[in-house]
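Let us practice reading a record.
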Amino acid sequence: PVAEGEGGPAADLAGCSKEEMVRRLCREEAEKLAVLVQHGRLIQGMDRHLKAVNGRLQAANRKLRSLCCFLAEEQLKAKRLARHWQIVRHHAAQVLRYEVAGCLRKLAGLEGLLPPLNPLYHSGAPGSPGSPRESGRAPSATSGGPEDQGAAPSGDSAMGRRRTVPEPPW
C-alpha cells in the first residue's frame, strides 16, 4: 500500500494528460525494446564466442584422433617388429647352437687323432723316460713331441736344451 503523501504510479498517471501518457508509454516501450536488442546482441556475441570455442575444440579433437590413430599404428608396427626380432633371435640362437655343436664334434674328432701325451716328456727333466736326450734321437713328426703340439721351435733347441711345453687349456 502506498502512503497518502507519496504518489505511486497511479497517482503519477492521474495528473497526466492523454498525450503525456502516450509519450510515457512510447518511452517505456522504447526502453524495453532497447533492452531486448541489447540482450539479443549479447546472446549473438556469446553465440559467436561459443562457435569459435567449439571450432577450436573440434580442431583439437581432430588432431587428437589423428595422433591416436598414428600411435595405434606405431604400436602395431612395434609389436610386429618385436615379434620379428624375437623370431630372428631364436633362429640365430639355433644356428649358433648347431654351429658350436659341430665345432665341438670336430674338435673331439681332432683330439682323438692326437697321440696320448707323456707328462714326463713335457717336464723337461734330462733323465726322464722318453726325453730326447735319453733316447738319443730328436723327436720326429710322429713322436708326439712339442712340434706336434704347435709349439714354435726355439733358439734354445739348437744348443741342445729343450723348453717345457705348457699343457693345453682343454
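A brief commentary: Helices lie at 9-14, 18-113, 119-123, 132-135.
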